[in-house]
Amino acid sequence: MLERIYLKDRSGVAIIIALLMLLVLTLIGISAISTTTFDTLISGNERVGTDAFYASEAGIQVAINQIPDTKPIPRTTLKEDSYYWSGGPADKKDPKSLQDLGLHQQAGFDSSWGFKRFQANATGESFGASKEVEVQVSYGPFKAGTEYSD
Fold first, then answer.
1. How far is 73 from 124, CA to CA, in rounded Å?
2. Which residues does residue 100 pair with via DSSP β-bridges, in sequence order?
3. Cα distance between the two ends of the chain
4. For every residue of the chain, which 3-state class applies, written as one string?
5. Among 129, 79, 138, 67, CA closest to 103
6. Is 121 within 8 Å of 57 (Cβ atoms)?
7. pTM (2 decimals)?
8. Are 99 and 69 in contact (CB under 8 A)?
9. Which of 74, 124, 126, 127 is the most exposed place for a label (fewest CB within 10 A)?
10. Tens-of-pLDDT digits for all 150 residues of the chain?
C-alpha cells in the first residue's frame, strides 16, 4: 500500500518535465527566428550598399571615358531607384565637374613628356543607400617642356 501512495505522488512529474522541455525548445526557436531575421536585414543592407557601389562605379566609367572633357555627369538612372552622378552625395541636384590637376611626370619618360592628371568623384545611390568613389586618372603622354632645334 505504501508503494501505491508513493507512485501516486509522482504522477505529475512527467507533465512538468514535458512543459520544461517545451519551454526550452520554444526559447531555442525564438532565438533562431530572431537570428535569421537579423541576418536577413544585414544581407539586405549589404545588397543595397553593393548596388550603390556599382552605380558609383558606372559613374566613374562614364567620367573616365569622357576625359579630357571635365564637364559634370548629370544624375543618370540605371534602373528602378538606382542613380549615379559626378561629385559627392550632397551634389545630387548640382553635379560637380571633374578636376584637372595639371601636368605631372611619370617614371620611364624624360622631361620632354608630360601627363595630365584628372580626378573624378562619382556617387551612386540605390534604394536610399549611397556610395562615393574617387579616382585619379593619368592621361598622356604629351610633348611638354622646351625643345631646342638646330
1. 12
2. 118
3. 132
4. CHHHHHHHHCCCHHHHHHHHHHHHHHHHHHHHHHHHHHHHHHHHHHHHHHHHHHHHHHHHHHHHHHCCCCCCCCCEEEECCEEEEECCHHHCCCCCCCEEEEEECCCCCCCCEEEEEEEEEEEEEECCEEEEEEEEEEEEEEECCCCCCC
5. 138
6. no
7. 0.72
8. no
9. 74
10. 555 555 556 667 888 999 999 999 999 999 999 999 999 999 988 999 999 999 999 999 999 999 999 999 999 999 888 999 999 999 999 999 999 999 888 888 888 888 999 999 999 999 989 999 999 999 989 887 655 554
Q: Residues in the chain, how many?
A: 150
C-alpha distances in angstroms, 84 versus 9, 60, 89, 94? 75, 9, 10, 12
Cell of 28: 531555442
| 102 grid coordinates | 595639371
* Other residues' Cβ atoms within 10 Å of the Cβ of residue 115: 17
Q: Which of 56, 60, 57, 52 is nearest to 81 (CA)?
A: 52
* Model pLDDT, residue 1: 53
